[in-house]
Design goal:
The chain is built from 14 helices and two strands. By secondary structure, the chain is mainly alpha-helical.
Amino acid sequence: MVLDTPLLSLYLDFFRLRRMPTPLAGRSTTIMVPASMPQDPAKRDSMLIIVAFAAIYLIWGSTYLAIAIGIQSFPPLLLAASRHLTAGLILFPLLRWKTGIRPTLAQWRTAGITGLLLLLIGNGGVCLSERTVPTGVAALIVALVSFWMVLLEWLRPGGLRPLPRVVASLVLGFGGLAVLVGPAHLGGSERVDLAGAGILVVSSFAWACGSIYSKHKDLPSSPMLSVAMQSLVGGAALWIVSLLSGEGHDLHFMAISGRSWIALAYLIVFGSGIGFTAYVYLLKNTSAARVGTYPFVNPVVALFLGWLWASEKITLRTGLAAAVILTAVLLVITAPHKNAIEAAEALPNPGEA
């Protein structure tokens, strides 16, 4: 898969940064913007948000297939560890020098906690589950992150109770999960492996926790530097857990296929370097409800690519579960706001669009 020219140009522009003072939360800070971006702040921020959404929609939908190809030769946790630690080791010193930002202890704490939640538990769990769960089905279960985010936003201090429509969509979404792991031989197909599905449920919950936590805690103003810090912590933790679990004995470099090496490179450059950066940028620059829309598109991309390249069957069970879960996700992301406070949070701020 190739990256279209506008997205590639935007990503490369991140490494030709210039400083621009911008007010944020009542204080002066410095943000990094590409030199070739439009000078009008509204147009510039709008373009960045659109490109970031395109990245998490399309790139992350394809990473499920890349993971499946990678774990054909790499142990699953070792694959995730190599991906994220490599990205962190490359990006952190480069961005630390480029931005001139010295992360504080509080920012390292936030990056450490989110790195463990998003990468060790979240992404590591996805890699483990794809040993027994098809890529498209894995993406469908991960779509539950939208529901977890709604619940967590409700339960956090100062959170808002979801509308009845949203509550109904939560029930519907978990009903779709029940279709995947429910009665055997439904529609002439076996149910999804329960252990693999359970790992994915835990992973999606951890990802939602990390997402909400990072949105309300302090991180560096540079999204890419935040990604690098999280990758360092999460990647190192994945390496430690991988070695403690004995995966090092299962790694044989001479037996790693070219396809798996390409998959690892794709995960590092696209999944971590571009996709994850776009995700963190959106968390800081738009609402949680909007960021939570990506699970609606990712499973469609993953299902199609799994069918096209991995010969995965789209059974009646999978199709029914996909219809139920994606309908529930659509209900969540299109639900009206029940009061002015919630509406104000979901609408773009002057600096967002």
